[in-house]
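Query form — protein Polypeptide N-acetylgalactosaminyltransferase 9

QUESTION: What is the three-dimensional structure of this chain?
INPUT:
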Amino acid sequence: MEVLPCSRVAHIERSRKPYNNDIDYYAKRNALRAAEVWMDGFKSHVYMAWNIPMTNPGVDFGDVSERLALRQRLKCRSFKWYLENVYPEMRTYNDTLTYGEVRNSKASGYCLDQGAEDDDRAILYPCHGMSSQLVRYSAEGLLQLGPLGSTTFLPDSKCLVDDGRARTPALKKCEDVTRPAQRLWDFAQSGPIVSRDTGRCLEVELSKDASFGLRLVMQRCSGQRWTIRNWIERGRH
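ANSWER: The structure tokens for Polypeptide N-acetylgalactosaminyltransferase 9 are given below.
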């Protein structure tokens, strides 16, 4: 496999397609087959990018044992070697502990969402499972919202930040947070999301002025609980 950054590829559309117009399922199936065969310990990146669970993903990618055997017979190199020698620009997320939709016990039909790109403000929005609602919690304690930045040439998803002054959380580029502690959180399944810097909790309050009548706030912890959809088992990421 080679990366050809200056190549040009053209695709002439047929006037009538001999296959189903909804190719989302088949695109996911092909992506998961490639990940399971070739990506070794990095295959979780594909599941994260599609925002689907690694266990029971809802896509039957079939039996890949024959393809794995072929790879072994050909003595193909590891995906780690590929990243180090062919495509070092790819951004990796092997420190991710958990990812997916994040819901609050007070508003279960709504998910944490990155909101408008230029707003730098997290919001609650009806859950839809798209990339704007992809949340990742890392071993370091970062909570990042939005689509993965697949290469170092593209912007990465932003960090959720509690600056200790504002009543609402901010979204900032992780590297632009002046005090790194402001971007660190404690979070366990069905528990609160707590800023390590301020001790305040990310919570939801009713508000007539907010979209859907719900607003994210930073305040003294009141016992609200959060859940996240997918956990990466040790040894699988």
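ADDITIONAL NOTE: The mean pLDDT is 90.
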